[in-house]
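Handoff note, outgoing to incoming analyst
You'll be picking up this chain. Sequence as last confirmed:
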Amino acid sequence: MTKLENIAWGIIGCGDVTELKSGPAFQKTEHSKLVAVMRRNAEKAADYAKRHGVPKWYSDADQLINDPVINAIYVATPPDSHAEYAIKSMRAGKPVYVEKPMATSYAECREMLRVSEETGVPLNVAYYRRTLPAFLKVEELIETDVLGKVLTVAITLHQANKKQANDPNAEPNWRIDPQIAGAGLFFDLASHQFDYLDYLFGPITKAQGVASNLAGLYEAEDTVSASFEFANGICGTGNWCFVVDQAAEKDTIEITGTKGKVSLSCFSHGPVELATAAGKEHFKFSNPENISHYLVKNVVQSLRGERTCVSTGKSAARTNKVLEEIVKNYYKP
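Most recent structure output, in case you need it:
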C-alpha cells in the first residue's frame, strides 16, 4: 500500500474506551487528525464529536468507511463486530487499527489477516502495553542479561466481582457476554498479558487450561488456570479469578531467570520490582495522559513509512489463538 503523508482518522464505536484512553491521542499525534466518529446512537455520536472537536459524526458505519476524507479507521466497538468493520475498511483501501482482543475467535482473526494480505492494507491492533515505559523497562532488563537466562513466567490476576455482574439495575456488561466478547473477562484482560509476553518472548506454541464458573453470576467463565510454553522453551503458568474478595485482589507478572526475578503489574501500573543477588530495586514510571498515545504515534509513523508497527494483526492473532486454546473445553457444546 502507498505510504500516507497525513492520517485522517475515523472512529467506529466512540464509546468509553475512546474518551480518554485513545480518542484524544489521534489529535495529539503529529501528522494525525481525527475527522469523524460513528456510533449507532446518533445523539451520543453528535455529543462526542462536539465535546472532542471532531468535525463529522455518523450513526452508520458504512457511511464513515466510505467517507473520502478518511484514510484510516480505528475500530473501537466490542469484539463481535471487529472482523466485520475491519474487513469492510480494508476492502475500502483504508488501514485499520482495531481494539483488543482482535476478534471473538481465532477463525475471525485469520479471515482479517487473509483480507489484509489480499488487499495489501495494514492491520494493527491496540495492544498499547508494548509501548509503555514500565513494560519496556522489563524488556531492557531481559535484553541486557540482568536476569540471566529466562526460565519461567507466572501470571496472577485476581479481581473482585464487578458490580455489573450481579446488579439487575446496571447496564449490560458485554465483557461477560461470550456472544459479544468471545468469552468472559479472561479474553478482555488476559489478552493484554499474553500479548505482552508474546512481545517479550515470541510465540507461545503450547497452551492448555481449565476454565470454570464458580460464582454463578453470569454465563462466562470466572476462573481460569493455564500452563503454556514458548517456542524458545520458556515455561509459563497463569491463574485468573474475577470473583475474589477485594482483600484478595492481585495483579502480577513474574519473570524468573538464572540471575534474578522481575515483577510488574499489568493493570494497576505500579513499579517494576527487580530482585537479584545485589538486592532489590524498584523502578517507577509515568504513563501518558491518553494511555494508548505512544502506540497511536507508532501506528501513524508506520503508515507514513517511518517505522514498523509493534502491534500487528499477526501478533494479535497469536494471542487470540492462545486464549481460545485455554478456555476451549468450557465452551464445547
